[in-house]
Amino acid sequence: xxxxxxxxxxxxxxxxxxxxxxxxxxxxxxxTPRFIQRTDGPYMWDVDGNRYIDYIxxxxxxxxxxxxxxxxxxxxxxxxxxxxxxxxxxxEVEMAELVxxxxxxxxxxxMVNSGTEATMSAIRLxxxxxxxxxxxxxxxxxxxxxxxxxxxxGSGALTLGVPSSPGVPDxxxxxxxxxxxxxxxxxxxxxxxxxxxxxxxxxEPVAGNMNCIPPVDGFLEGLRAICDSYHSxxxxxxxxxGFRVSRGGAxxxxxxxxxxxxxxxxxxxxxxVGAFGGKKHILTHIAPTGPIYQAGxxxxxxxAMAAGLAAIKQIAAxxxxxxxxxxxxxLAEGMRDLAHKHGVPLSIxxxxxxxxxxxxxxxxxxxxQQAINCNTKQFNQFYHAMLxxxxxxxxxxxxxxxxxxxxxxxxxxxTLAAADKAFASIDK
Length: 428
Ligand code: PMP
Hints:
Blueprint: H1 3-14, E1 36-40, E2 43-46, E3 51-54, H2 69-79, H3 90-102, E4 108-112, H4 115-130, E5 134-138, E6 151-152, E7 162-163, H5 170-173, E8 176-179, H6 184-194, E9 198-203, H7 219-230, E10 233-237, H8 249-254, E11 260-264, E12 274-278, H9 280-283, H10 302-315, H11 320-341, E13 347-351, E14 354-358, H12 368-372, H13 376-388, E15 391-392, E16 401-402, H14 409-425
Bound molecules: 4'-deoxy-4'-aminopyridoxal-5'-phosphate.
């Protein structure tokens, strides 16, 4: 037995499923999750000493690559003074100012501890601010695990939502409307029926939880126009896209400005952090300036702020993204060529440093149905072949991949050499 297998058996006795977040368990692809011992740059090493080129990058935060020395030093320095104060610090002010300067629509910023907290709080704020109850989200988008967001579409396009998890009461789910991503008509139809009571639209501006699906032309603009005409709040969940699809996130890349933005992942440099923010006249409605309650004992934690600041300051350098975007494009094009060479139908989406590989003959995947109709058998075979050849992809076909600054042209070439073998080995 490998050390990972032994640890996985042991873990399952005291941790549900052996993991602290479900996708890590390899349930979709089968086999034993690799228990990780250490990381550096593009690499992770498991407890058995195997080295992998990692395209998960902690599910997104590591835009500089793993174990970045500047972030590591900032954490060591900050921890010299204690780990948590429960009182305001200068680092929090600096963080809010920095975020605001990079994402100008975030005129005010409130720090939280995870992406889930960011979206949950932004939705409460939108509801409190508009005095409306319903929210509108998209099929295949994930915004964390708050009750009102664990909701799928009802049986007809315009039915109210139904819970997608036991433990979410129908009475909560009925306030969540779920429509099709990249289909502005479905959004308009929902507003035709319920527009007076929709507090907000929440959207991943590039969907990264049904693999990687960029917005089609006009989709984000359409959401902005609908929110404007119904006085609903437009929330961009940029937990994944923030500091990733461009420095200022998807809103900068696509030129559509939301009222509220949620951030996570990159903003903590690997520490547990999230943030939400937006227009000042909305943000002042939260406590203590306003009546809408939101709080957190560890929010703005000094060590997390130090890590986040060290990450964001490096990202802010001119031309930072050029090589990452180029390497991501080359990786995608290389994969496409190799799949073609081996007679495997494959479609690839790229948005900045995010990419998605779809085993399908659909030329351009733009929605959830197309994403879930992909050939999961081929994906699973490809996944394990890549793992055997030293490349660690997300262990499920509906997750985006992430490229970091540490993924050089050589790392891309090494990945493509592994992909050549992997495509050759799968069933056609
Ligand atoms: N929003 C998006 C777009 C995400 O991708 C995620 C996590 N993958 C979340 C929210 C939730 O963030 P967290 O896991 O930090 O709670």
